[in-house]
Design brief:
mainly alpha, 7 helices, extended
């Protein structure tokens, strides 16, 4: 059986760029710099585009309760103090990741985010 002749295939073919040229918008306005999103338990509810507007709801008690990495997660996601209380409460009532996700998902958070949070502890 004869082998495939790659050279003959490539000489007679056109490149993917020629078949499907990329055409972007004529002008693309720059997006504002996002310093932090503000979340509640159901998702993003606001955006901070000025670094002077960054506020942290993380206290020493929260760091002690869940550890530095988990506290950093909560801070980076911009959760409010009510959301932090619910998440930390679920964290302390749970004995494993399944219990934690079941408890905290009831507040509207995504399982994958909760599993990530638990893995940081």
């Amino acid at each position: 059986m004869a082998g495939l002749n790659i050279r003959s295939l490539t000489q007679n073919s056109i490149s993917p760029k020629q078949r499907h040229p990329v055409r972007g918008p004529a002008t693309l306005a720059p997006a504002p710099v996002v310093y932090k999103y503000i979340w509640n338990k159901a998702g993003v509810v606001g955006t901070i585009t000025n670094p002077a507007g960054i506020i942290s709801n993380i206290t020493e008690d929260i760091v002690t309760a869940v550890g530095l990495s988990c506290a950093g997660y909560l801070d980076a996601h911009g959760f409010g103090s009510d959301e932090i209380s619910c998440i930390v409460g679920a964290f302390h009532r749970a004995t494993n990741v399944q219990e934690f996700t079941a408890l905290a998902a009831g507040y509207g958070m995504a399982y994958t985010e909760l599993e990530w949070f638990w893995s940081l502890s």
